[in-house]
């Protein structure tokens, strides 16, 4: 039981540390939009866009020069009243789908999006297969074994 | 289940064999991947530029490198393509960019062979770029400066150097990110230039 709790805690660790990582996002007041609502929207968009220089960070998290330029552009578009969809489409037109940290759901990515479900089904099949074949019942004890057992129980 | 008990359902051989086969398959896959990376056929960091196959993005004339000359915009590029009927290479570079020095000899060789190369200095000081080209040679038929990098973003630029091949109709036919190696020029750029000549 305790072991299981420790395992659960370990599994939950990355989830617990997520807000910590988010708090590290670059927050230079000079970059921000004056309207907090617009700024929040710009940050939400920026977090969905890959920094092409560092590649595993969003443009909101990256310190790269290009990421700063792209953050600035996102804010210009937000201030101009464009929708999130329009702004992301603007980025995709220049940098391709790779710029989106969350890949679109399209034929090429069906397998990618389905992989958790496929893994679950695969695991289920293995478990079902493994538990279906029961071990054959042990052969009944021979006369000599029964006598030995009786002796052991008596003593 | 005690250690001595036989594995239920899946045979013991399968339990041992499946992970082994999976590990061997993964090993073979990674080996092939690394070989391709080593040979330069595969770059995991490469970004496919979506502009390939599309018209060059519109941009207002950028300032020139040298105040005595004029820079260029997309209209100038289209006019030159139309007038010469030959493809043009557009090369983004910067004097502060070390890999740009690596590809510089290849640009000089192509310019010497009569290929039209138009340069855009990305976030560069005019004096620095002028000094570099004065020392190492200037392969550019026309030169402009994208001081704040805004036009470069419209080209999907994510680093320097990057090179685009534009056909006579103003369509982007080739894109290379990173320094052009002599082999890249020989195997990719030159054949594409010939195909669109």
Structure in words:
The complex is a heterodimer of chains A (155) and B (197). By secondary structure, chain A is mainly α. Chain A is 61% helix and 0% strand. The radius of gyration of chain A is 29 Å and the shape is elongated. Chain B folds into two domains: 1-44; 74-195, Glutaredoxin (3-Layer(aba) Sandwich). In chain B, 43% of the residues lie in helices and 15% in strands. Chain B has a five-stranded mixed beta sheet. The longest helix of chain B is centred in the first third of the chain and has 28 residues, at 12-39. Classes of the chains: A mainly alpha (155), B alpha/beta (197). At the A-B interface, helix 3, helix 4 and helix 5 of A face helix 5 of B.
Annotate the secondary structure layout.
The complex is a heterodimer of chains A (155) and B (197).
Chain A: H1 2-22, H2 36-46, H3 65-79, H4 84-95, H5 110-132, H6 143-154
Helix pairs in contact in A: 2-3
Chain B: H1 12-39, H2 74-84, E1 88-93, H3 98-112, E2 116-122, H4 126-136, E3 142-146, H5 150-154, E4 162-166, E5 172-177, H6 182-195
Parallel strand pairs in B: 1-2, 2-3
Antiparallel strand pairs in B: 1-4, 4-5
Keywords, please?
heterodimer; A: 155 residues; Helicase, Ruva Protein, domain 3; 61% helix; elongated; B: 197 residues; alpha/beta; 2 domains; five-stranded mixed beta sheet; 6 helices; 5 strands; disordered N terminus
């Amino acid at each position: 039981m305790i072991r299981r709790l420790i395992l659960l805690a370990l599994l939950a660790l990355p989830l617990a540390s997520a807000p910590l990582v988010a708090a590290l996002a670059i927050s230079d007041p000079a970059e921000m939009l004056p309207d907090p609502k617009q700024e929040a929207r710009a940050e939400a968009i920026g977090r969905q866009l890959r920094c092409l220089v560092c590649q595993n960070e969003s443009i909101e998290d990256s310190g790269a020069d290009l990421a700063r330029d792209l953050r600035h552009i996102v804010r210009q578009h937000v201030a101009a009243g464009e929708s999130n969809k329009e702004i992301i489409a603007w980025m995709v037109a220049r940098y391709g789908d790779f710029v989106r940290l969350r890949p679109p759901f399209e034929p090429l990515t069906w397998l990618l999006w389905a992989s958790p479900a496929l893994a679950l089904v695969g695991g289920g099949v293995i478990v079902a297969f493994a538990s279906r074949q029961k071990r054959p019942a042990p052969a009944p004890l021979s006369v000599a074994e029964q006598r030995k057992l009786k002796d052991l129980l008596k003593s | 289940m005690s250690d001595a008990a036989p594995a239920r359902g899946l045979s013991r051989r399968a339990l041992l064999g499946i992970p082994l086969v999976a590990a061997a398959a993964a090993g073979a896959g990674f080996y092939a991947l690394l070989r391709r990376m080593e040979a330069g056929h595969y770059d995991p960091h490469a970004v496919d530029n979506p502009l390939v196959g599309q018209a060059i993005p519109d941009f207002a004339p950028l300032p020139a490198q040298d105040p005595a000359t004029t820079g260029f915009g997309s209209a100038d590029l289209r006019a030159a393509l139309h007038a010469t009927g030959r493809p043009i290479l557009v090369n983004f570079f910067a004097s502060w960019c070390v890999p740009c020095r690596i590809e510089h000899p290849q640009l000089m060789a192509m310019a010497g062979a009569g290929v039209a190369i138009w340069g855009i200095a990305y976030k560069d000081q005019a004096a620095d770029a002028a000094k570099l080209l004065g020392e190492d040679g200037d392969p550019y038929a026309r030169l402009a400066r994208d001081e704040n990098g805004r036009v470069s973003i419209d080209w999907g630029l994510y680093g320097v150097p990057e090179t685009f091949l534009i056909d006579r109709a103003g369509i982007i036919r080739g894109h290379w990110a990173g320094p052009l190696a002599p082999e890249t020029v020989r195997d990719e750029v030159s054949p594409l230039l010939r195909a669109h000549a």
